[in-house]
Amino acid sequence: MLVDxxxxxxxxxxxxxxxxxxxxxxxxxKVLVELAQxxxxxxxxxxxxxVIVAAELLKSADxxxxxxxxxxxxxxxxRLACKExxxxxxxxxxxxxxxxxxxxxxGAARTSMSSKIIGANADFFSEMVVKAAKLVxxxxxxxxxxxxxxxxxxxxxHGKSARESMLVEGYALNxxxxxxxxxxxxxxxxxxxxxFSLQKSKMHLDLRGRRRPREARSDPPRxx
Length: 224
What we know:
Blueprint: E1 2-3, E2 9-10, H1 15-21, H2 27-42, H3 47-66, H4 71-93, H5 97-100, H6 102-113, H7 122-135, E3 138-139, E4 145-146
Antiparallel strand pairs: 1-2, 3-4
Helix pairs in contact: 1-2, 2-3, 6-7
InterPro entries: Chaperone_TCP-1 (IPR017998), Chaperonin_TCP-1_CS (IPR002194), Cpn60/GroEL/TCP-1 (IPR002423), GroEL-like_apical_dom_sf (IPR027409), GROEL-like_equatorial_sf (IPR027413), TCP-1-like_intermed_sf (IPR027410)
Region (Disordered): 204-224
Organism: Steinernema carpocapsae (Entomopathogenic nematode)
């Protein structure tokens, strides 16, 4: 339970949310906060675990520096260990998605949602998430399969329950109609793609011919 200066109460067990609400001033602490936020944005889970691992690495690095080992040597050692760890994961623990099967992927999604707010509806949302990830599946020129998760957007709407959420196989705009007389559905529409904004903008004042104020002029001030 977190209570801020205003008095708002936040009840959560998410590591990224807890660290985000804390007022951290120490540089190493700020690194851990940013690390948790990046983990939450990129993966969506494991924020607490990544903070614990990073804290232990910093603790070990501090002990090495106190033993008169240069920080550059410690950094090079960590980079070498990172490369070896990635090589081991790719060789022994990496399995192609096609070989896992849908049930294994659904189980992984269900496990990731178990500690979130929608944990009670993990079965419902796991199928939706896996299907959305498959819809944005792309293959680059080298034949590598990519899943750009940022291409999946979440639109929030009030008034219904969580189980009434739906997956739109296309592009959805979270907006309302300007008039009730407008049609709700159009077959074979023509879409205009504009690369400039249609919003109103203030016109710049024409200051040509006007004398600039003294602080904006380059001529020296007069002396009596």
